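Notes from hallway chat w/ T.B., transcribed later so I don't forget. T.B. wanted the structure written out for a chain they're using in a teaching module, and asked if we could keep both sequence and structure tokens in one place. Agreed to drop them here.
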Amino acid sequence: MRNAKFTLILYAAALIGTVHTPPVLAKDVTEEVSPPVVSMVPATFADIAEKLTPAVVNISSTQKAVVPEDYPQMPQFPEGSPFEEFFEEFMQRRGGGMAMPPAASLGSGFIVDAQNGYIVTNNHVVRDADDVQITLYNDVTISAEIIGTDDKTDIAVLKVNPEGLDLKSVSFGDSDILRVGDWTLAIGNPFGLGGSVTAGIVSARARDINSGPYDDYIQTDASINRGNSGGPLFNMKGEVIGINTAIFSPTGGSVGIGFSIPSALANPVVNQIIKYGRTRRGWLGVRIQTVTDEIAESLGLDKARGALVASITEDGPADKAGLQAGDIILELNQQEIREMKYLPRIVAENDVGTQANVKFWRDGKMGSATVTIGELEKAEEEGLVSDDAVLSQRGVEATSVGLVMLSLDDTLREQFNIPATTKGIVITDVLPNSEALKKGLVKGNVIVEINQQAVSEPQDVVDVIEKAQKNGKSSVLLLIESNGAKAFVALRLP
């Protein structure tokens, strides 16, 4: 599961609404109001479903079982020893010598290139798989090879040998033109039952479910269940506008809230994996934070928009182009940065090595710079973005350990009842499923030291973590103060 509340799977939910007649206006209303133009509800989805179903596949993957190191093993005895038969019987009763069942996963996928046999699905459907089997619409089952995966967007590309197979493919459409209320169709493999078709509408756009750095999900009320992960979400033209990935569910079953990776985000990732066997995302080399109304006003910007540069990676693309801490990035290649969260995705979609025009706000006026886009994956390998710390309204995030932090001030001291004599930084949030959460850290805890170094700013913690990672350390040691008591807490690093 990518989040405690989000069960990873596919979606598809039937929702056929009733078109209501608009009310008759009172006679004393002088201005005539025209009702919105409403397209007729399709009488049937049969024709489009029949056309698209052959391109959707069922996926099953298995992993070799890993035997624990402390699992009891058969002692070695000389051949013919009287103890040999005794221990064989003992181990059989304990389960020794019996093969452990392999871990299995069911999901869905869709063919995007029939000529070369390329199939798209979710990464979590085939993660760590030793064997992947594809079942076509005509019940033919074949083996597939994993070409490449991307954990950040939960996308994987598989390949089958197309020889002798009558493969059908579908193509990506433009998810950016989707509107809330548009009809969608989902096809997948719920609970391993085989090809199932469901219909629904787009419930919302640009949903962030805290599953990754590029969250921009389409929300649909199409009914999604286990086994639907990796299947396509179609528009009424028969184009793939999303990859069904997750549902919100307290029980694990569909409650009509499903999430799909938009095609605008998925298509470039798929193309990169097919071309390179991996992703090659653009990288700017900046740490950014949200532009609040107060920040916009203090810097003379008309309203809160863009991404505020908090710091710049030395000798990175932005540094070489002359960008500075305090700049507010408003556009990149004529694409408006409405909010901070849009900048990483827009930068990532640019080809490595290309020139990008950046418009920014500095000293009360507009400026521009030309940046040569770097490669994110290379920067990660070199440790330049090892912790991927991002500043936000709630604080500085040290994502590798799951901490969100702010410098202590009078407001925070009052909020968390922290004495005036306490020095350090306060934890304002702990990320789900993180190392910090596992070790019991909570909001209001104060970090006094990290690796026996006193801290006064959140960036001090981020810097020590990054240094530890670069030096190959497996953990960092925090000195935590809570309710007047101090204790050391060790956090393991990924």
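Follow-up for T.B.: The first helix runs from residue 46 to 52. Might be a good example for the class.
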